[in-house]
TrEMBL record:
Biased composition annotated in UniProt, kind: Basic and acidic residues: 55-67
Active site: H443, C459
The keyword rRNA processing belongs to this UniProt entry's keyword annotation: no
Entry-linked SUPFAM superfamilies: L,D-transpeptidase catalytic domain-like
InterPro entries membership: LD-transpeptidase, LD_TPept_cat_dom, Transpep_catalytic_dom
PANTHER family according to UniProt: L,D-TRANSPEPTIDASE, L,D-TRANSPEPTIDASE YCIB-RELATED
Family: Belongs to the YkuD family.
Region of interest (Disordered), ranges: 22-69
Residues of the signal peptide: 1-26
The protein's name in its UniProt record: L,D-transpeptidase
Keyword match Lipid biosynthesis: no
Organism: Polyangium sorediatum
GO molecular function, one term: transferase activity
Transmembrane portions of the chain: none
Length: 499
């Protein structure tokens, strides 16, 4: 998918979240898991009747979430609205399997037969095709658990081998596996190197022989006896759980497909991470191999004291020897040559966010360097991979769009195809996506470790640890049980340029 297949004008809200090309086609498969309300929006709260303290307490329990009542998502996207009305502003969405606190009483049934319910921390959800009050619903049972928002990556990730794995929709017997995958499947299992992922017990609903359900809004592929065909040859999957069945390990994907893990290999997750400036100083990233750590000896001369690893990050005190092109002192007490580093120094953005003390992000396409600022103070820096088209025309190549933009939509994860320049590539649950202009986004990449080199299809690729740090730092905030948030006006500024 070419990055040029973008709308020619600013898309409507629904298009932003459902149809953005995002360096390739984007979908948000089911799975589970704003501190700021969009400007001009007001949360509509049911009026509370006056009466005795007991009556007031009961009224609060009826209309405010957090008193034990729950609501669950059974759709690919369960939209959250600022008011109990589907024509009000959308704040974000839940993914299938998410269970959140709700008010006990409905806030009305306007264009929602099942009733609107206020949820934590804000907004309203309609009970119907997208959400249910029955927490034992089969979709919720199937989703098991959601993304781990505390971890570097929200899921465990595997990549397909060749031939790609079949997508089973129920636990296959030995006979099923031989019929589907061939008579030598057991020999293959015996010889294959299976990814080492944490194993759970077989989910009860699968052990009972039940079929995996598909959430409302999910594409229903053609089903055979026990499977729905093969995955694409070059696919990657996020797993919500894995377990052993018939002496074979299976993984359950976020799209609620079962895949034999011996037909996959582990994703090679980059260990690279940027530097958080959590003390007075400036960020520096070593971009040369063999950069010497230098210390000043009693003789007044500089002596080598080891090597600073390539792509390592350091906090610099701001003290220099020989000026900005000379040596820079680190908070660790040694010095590094300026020529071996990229340094995030105080600077300003083109529209005055820095002068106003706001958060903003600077992305240098030439340097493949990202610096996050609070005002003029750098607070984080890392290496990135922008579009392989470099400084060419983004409308004609895979270059990253240049300009001043704002983060307008965030997803804990989403599916991208064509990101590697191939229509056959199918990357599931790309982590920590932040759209800043039409289909262009900041996001984590678990399929390569070439940060510091232009190689994306137009988006700004980050190492997973860096993508998570930025996702947690930027606006709009995505509450813990939500899977996405929207703010068309007030998100964090992103400045992409050739400097």
């Amino acid at each position: 998918m070419s990055p040029r297949a973008r709308p020619s004008r600013r898309p409507a809200l629904l298009a932003l979240l459902l149809a953005l090309p995002s360096c390739g086609n984007v979908e948000d498969p089911p799975g589970r898991v704003l501190d700021r309300t969009p400007p001009g929006a007001t949360l509509e709260r049911p009026s509370k009747p006056e009466g005795t303290p007991a009556a007031d307490k009961r009224a609060a329990e009826d209309t405010e979430p957090g008193h034990g009542a729950k609501i669950g998502s059974i759709a690919m996207r369960t939209w959250i609205y600022v008011a109990p009305d589907d024509r009000s502003t959308k704040l974000g969405y839940l993914r299938a399997g998410a269970v959140v606190d709700r008010a006990e009483a409905s806030a009305g049934t306007r264009r929602c037969e099942g009733g609107w319910y206020r949820i934590v921390p804000r907004g309203y959800v309609c009970v119907g095709k997208g959400a249910t009050l029955a927490i034992d619903h089969q979709v919720i049972q199937a989703a098991l658990r959601g993304p781990d928002r505390a971890a570097t990556l929200p899921y465990a990730y595997v990549m397909s081998r060749s031939p790609a794995p079949h997508l089973y929709f129920r636990l296959p017997t030995d006979k099923d596996q031989r019929r589907v995958e061939g008579p030598t499947v057991r020999e293959h299992v015996r010889l294959a190197i299976t990814p080492n992922v944490p194993l759970d017990t077989v989910p009860a609903f699968l052990g009972e022989g039940r079929d995996l359900p598909k959430p409302y809004g999910a594409v229903e592929p053609l089903r055979y006896t026990v499977h729905a065909g093969r995955a694409k040859e070059e696919s990657a999957f996020g797993l919500v759980t894995a377990f052993e069945w018939t002496s074979r390990k299976f993984g359950l994907t976020t799209e609620l497909d079962l895949i034999p893990l011996d037909r996959t290999k582990p994703a090679k997750i980059s260990a690279h991470h940027g530097v958080v400036v959590d003390k007075p100083g400036l960020p520096g990233i070593v971009v040369s191999h063999g950069a010497s750590k230098l210390v000043e000896g009693a003789d007044g001369r500089m002596h080598e004291k080891g090597i600073a690893p390539w792509r390592s990050g350091w906090i610099l005190t701001g003290n220099t020897k020989g000026g900005e092109r000379g040596l820079w002192e680190t908070t660790e007490g040694f010095w590094l040559p300026a020529e071996t580093m990229l340094i995030g120094t105080p600077r300003e953005d083109p529209v005055g966010h820095a002068r106003a003390g706001k958060k903003w992000i600077d992305v240098s396409i030439k340097k493949q360097f990202l610096v996050a600022y609070e005002g003029t103070r750098p607070v984080f820096a890392t290496l990135v991979s922008t579009g392989r088209g470099g400084m060419s025309d983004p409308e004609k190549t895979t270059a990253t769009m240049r300009g001043v933009f704002y983060v307008h939509a965030k997803h804990v994860s989403g599916t991208m195809d064509g990101e590697e320049g191939s229509d056959s590539f199918d990357l599931r649950d790309v982590p920590y996506i932040q759209y800043f202009h039409e289909g262009y986004a900041l996001h984590g990449a678990y399929w390569h470790d070439e940060f510091g080199k232009a190689r994306s299809h137009g988006c700004v690729n980050l190492a997973p640890a860096d993508a998570k740090w930025l996702f947690d730092w930027t606006d709009p905030v995505v509450p813990p049980e939500w899977h996405g948030a929207v703010n068309l006006e007030g998100g964090t500024l992103v400045w992409t340029h050739g400097g």
